[in-house]
Amino acid sequence: MGYYDSSLNIPVPMSPIPTQVVRFFDNTVEHLDLDGENVFHVKFAGEERSYDVSPMDLPLLLSSGTMRGSQIMQMVISVLMHGDMLLVDELENSLNKRLIQTIFDLFTSQVTNPHGACLIFTTHYPELLDYLDRTDCIYFMRRMKNGKVDASKLSDLEPRYDIKRSEMFLSNQFGATAPKAAEIMMLRNYITHRLSADSGQ
């Protein structure tokens, strides 16, 4: 089983990253090699020179999204090969929806997932709900008034199929999934009051 916590600092790679993986996240990378002395050689398209950097300095050349995405994708490939399970906390961090949709597709296709590998992830990005076909594999984690955390399966909440799940989530139709209008107004009034008080000093 693999686990990736996206709240950690940018991961420092200590093993080769296939160019095909890196180019999925940054197509300006022409090639990326790691030599026997643990030095990365990075060549960008349109540039004659290549950059020789240590694993610690690689994040200076590649974005956090490329670094995190490449690390996650290598774990994805590993679990797909072995039919294992991958846990990713806050999958959406530094990745756009198209990249995440591709990861979903890798797990839902029998061609790329012949061994039944499983992806379990948390997210604060409700739009990702619209990419998932099944409702019995989606859980909402909500803190209830008694202080306990409730895990509710989407299929048990009788969702409407004529409205996007993300819209239902943001409109609070599942309960305690988004701030209510009164809470938003309370915050706005507080900020307005603070600004008025500061300007009066």
UniProtKB/TrEMBL annotation:
Xref: Gene3D superfamilies: P-loop containing nucleotide triphosphate hydrolases (3.40.50.300)
Domain ATPase AAA-type core: 50-130
InterPro entries associated with the record: ATPase_AAA_core, P-loop_NTPase
Pfam families: AAA_21
An example Gene Ontology molecular-function term: ATP binding
PANTHER family: ATPASE AAA-TYPE CORE DOMAIN-CONTAINING PROTEIN, ATPASE-LIKE PROTEIN
Record's protein name: AAA domain-containing protein
